């Protein structure tokens, strides 16, 4: 708790509220005029001695910093983490020892491919980066919402990103992988097969950051007080379950509300619906390193949870929004190499490259070596060393000594022994020749991609087929299309044949994969299903049955479902019994894609246009497999559109029973057993 308070107090010293304050320059000089620059006469030229103009304009000219090359589009929140039980058996990391200790955290979610101005519901991997402000220093768990990656060696990072980004000759398309250079890269770098399966699945279009898993991707080490190491992979499990959008819905949301994911996170925290994630670890003894049919250090491979169970060890709660997106979210500097005693690295070649790259990119993005002194990056524990000067230096170091070893300051600051908490790298024995090569154990590119396919439910498989069909349908090169078809025949002949037919390519040759292994944990069909924080749009018209509809809304709200009224106009909508509800949306300002469910509550349908718009809303929600509810006149709206008697469509005259049944339908999230449309 003291650690959490220390971080909040530290940030408080940098927080400023300008409301009611006198305008000054950055040097504190009070400003008498901020509308007009200093001129030689009312119609004369501006005078350069106007220091206020120069300061204001210079700061404005330099307000923007280079956006991240990848993960540019991001949003973040503050929170806290508590371990459930001591992990002393495996690691000496202090923040994983005491269940009573609350460690402050800062979490940044992001898309990978798009620029800062791109939409948030695009098909893409999502970043899930967590900064723990521990008593031993900052620890960054920098992961994604997908447990594997495209490449095995960091030297391929520039190639991957160059291929993924908008094509350089016309800078098209933005925030999309549906173009020639990306798929040309995939076809010619087939280690990416497993990651591509995830990227073409529902995991790449999450419902929200709150309903998205996170993974550390790499294999790390825990090291305990006795120096014993255990291989570890990190997982974040959302308590609301892992849920996704459907592709048509994701595309429409990108136009209706490109800020959909950040708005959802912001509003949820503001309403007190704090996102929660449990931290899980997969633990593997060093002596078991070679007991599997894959290399545990290969970042294109996951550890199947059925073979190596996930042990849940703690919970993270995001409970406070940022005060300033630039100062916190944009200036946050994450680095996979920022670890604390008890957490160490492995020889994963992708991880090894990240240990260099992340610091290097912060140097240019944040203007120099002192990015660690920015409030959002500053550790809660004291830090002392002989590093000095540079752009953006905030520390005022006192004294004449800034080197080691020294006698003038009694050889301080002095290194700490391991017993005193000094970081000591795990002493792994390493032998080998200097060589540019890849281990033979990394050369199986397809078996886990097939395992992923085998693990999917039938609706999920159909979504993957359609995703390949869409993406490759945007590719202009027939050669690249055919190369991808032939490549993914190694994953599944059914998959490759299906999207080959859709894009007009030749059927793939060969027998496909013989891998039969599956992992039920990979299917979202098996995730937690809960109505809590789901958002239901309530369509009503004037003269609705006020008391009964209000009873339904109260029951839904009690179940944790958020309800928002949609009608033909904003403001008060009067019921037949003088009950009033406030319409916060009209058919023009809202859309069915912005809700998890729709409730047609009845009332006068109003104009022919309103009736048509109501029909559009409920038909679109139905086509996205969402739950639909109807009472009173709303039942006729459902019947007129021939949507009754389908799974997930709930109607009723008994308000109590209706609310119960509709709540259960909302918890299901999608009703895939409807006829596919």
Automatic annotation (TrEMBL):
Return the InterPro entries for the record.
Catalase (IPR018028), Catalase_AS (IPR024708), Catalase_clade2 (IPR024712), Catalase_clade2_helical (IPR043156), Catalase_core (IPR011614), Catalase_haem_BS (IPR002226), Catalase_immune_responsive (IPR010582), Catalase_large_C (IPR041399)
Under CDD domains, the record lists: catalase_clade_2, GATase1_catalase
Active-site residues, record numbering mapped to chain: 71, 144
| One GO molecular-function entry | metal ion binding
Residues holding heme: 68, 108, 157, 354, 358, 365
Q: What is its EC number?
A: 1.11.1.6
Q: Which residues form the Catalase core domain?
A: 24-412
Cofactor(s), by name: heme
User: Which keywords belong to this entry?
Assistant: Heme, Hydrogen peroxide, Iron, Metal-binding, Oxidoreductase, Peroxidase
What reactions does this protein catalyze?
Answer: 2 H2O2 = O2 + 2 H2O
Enumerate the Gene Ontology biological process terms: hydrogen peroxide catabolic process; response to oxidative stress
> One of this protein's Pfam families, by short name?
Catalase
Could you tell me which Gene3D superfamilies the record lists for this protein? 1.20.1370.20, 3.40.50.880, Catalase core domain
Mind telling me which GO cellular component terms the entry cites? cytosol
Q: What highest taxon heads this organism's lineage? A: Bacteria
Crosslink position(s): 3'-histidyl-3-tyrosine (His-Tyr): 335-358
Q: Where is coiled-coil annotated?
A: none
Query: Hey, which family's this protein in?
Result: Belongs to the catalase family. HPII subfamily.
User: What functional role does this protein have?
Assistant: Decomposes hydrogen peroxide into water and oxygen; serves to protect cells from the toxic effects of hydrogen peroxide.
Protein's name according to its UniProt entry: Catalase
Species name: Peribacillus deserti
